[in-house]
Amino acid sequence: MNSLLWYPPAETCMHPRSVLAALLTKHDDFEASLCSFLGTQTCVVGGSARAMMTLLLQVLKQADTQNRDEVLIPAYTCYSVAASVARAGLKIIVYDLDPRTLGPDPDSLNRCAGSATLAIVHQHLFGIPQPIEFVRNTSDRFGIPIIEDAAQGLGGFLNGTPLGALGDYGVFSFGRGKPLAAGNGGAVTGERQAINALSKPGSSRCWIPLCMTMVVQVLSHPLLYGLVERLPLGLGKTVFNPGFSITGMPLVMRRFAERSLANIGSCTDRRRNIAGVYKSCLKSSDMVSEPQGAVPAYPRFPFYAGPGEVSRQLFRLGVRRMYPRAVPDEPEIAQFLARSDHRVPGARQIAQNLVSLPTHSRITPRLAREISALLVKGC
Asked: What's this model's pTM, rounded to 2 decimal places?
């Protein structure tokens, strides 16, 4: 590897035609385009996925007549999910995951659900589709909805159904590193009455987010990214912040995301091809298994490399740890947890041993093989 090159861990590239469409067109049909892609009828777009999750939880709480105030979330997930629950004024309950699949542990989920549960968050981590049937059994037993966290799953399918359209509601992110990497925005889809009750964030005409996204694309070039990571910008850090603002998605970003959505199929195919290189080079026993009928989105590729720091050589190639701790082990989240006893050995095992391998457009099959060889040597 060229010693001057330093690769980002996830997608930041922007297609020039998408940028031109954002700058030159005046129409905005992003919500309709997203509904068409997902096969849903109702969609609301906002400034971030965590904002849309918060608004949805607030609507569900307002409609609740049984004094329910707990939300079940995975014990290993992005801290923004926990922040959304806290921002909505609700309590967090965590259920454990199966390290082999990254899906919910059925016993843990059933143990955590109860009469105080307002909703269950079901995720597709790394864009790997997770079956929803036994989650549905639990939700039906208590009469509670499933919120499908498809922040990393847009473009993936399970038995022909798009991820985000399996549950009662779907939440999507269009931030950097996501399958549709617009650098900004989020959306929620689902049951018409609840979605229409959302306090829809207004869309500004501010061009700053698009300019910032274009700057990030330039700075994420392998010749520059090493310098950027040395700056105290907090790049790649997972932070719990329930004090975030709820804003709209600027019109120019909606136009950019709409044009990018038209290319998501080819982008997802390319990421899956890179994932296929990793699969051919690495031990299957150290990989996450995929359910039958799964077509993953793979914004990154998960691999169990074991505990310890990622070597500098792998770090320069975009290999990273994902979330540093299981949710209940993050000190700042503790005050928002409804319980103090957390039996989540699976989530802790994932946090300790899992790394993410880059699949973005700057990663070639040759580079993926080089990463694999370094992992084999290191493990």
From this structure: 0.93
Summarised one tens digit per residue, pLDDT across range 64-76 is: 999 999 999 999 9
Correct CATH for 16-378 of 3.40.640.10, 3.40.800.20, 3.40.190.120, 3.90.580.10: 3.40.640.10
Under a CB-based contact definition with an 8 Å cutoff, are residues 20 and 14 in contact? no
Longest dimension (CA), the chain: 61
CB 131 within 8 A of CB 158: yes
Least confident range from 106-110, 181-185, 279-283: namely 181-185
- Arithmetic mean of pLDDT, 347-375: 97
Please give the C-alpha separations between residue 154 and each of 77, 99, 173, 230, 278, in angstroms, as whole numbers: 17, 22, 9, 31, 21
Query: Which range is least confidently modeled, 112-121, 134-143, 239-248, 361-370?
Result: 239-248
Kindly state the average pLDDT of the residues 208-228: 76
Of the candidates 350, 13, 294, 258, which has an alpha carbon nearest to the alpha carbon of residue 127?
Answer: 294
Let me know if 138 is exposed, middle or buried by CB neighbors in 10 A (0-12, 13-18, 19+): buried
Domain boundaries, the chain: 16-378
Report the pLDDT value the prediction gives residue 84, as an integer from 0 to 100: 98
Kindly report, residue by residue over 80-98, the tens digit of the pLDDT: 999 999 999 999 999 999 9
Q: Which strand ranges, in their side-by-side order, compose the sheet holding 300-304?
A: 300-304, 354-358, 320-321
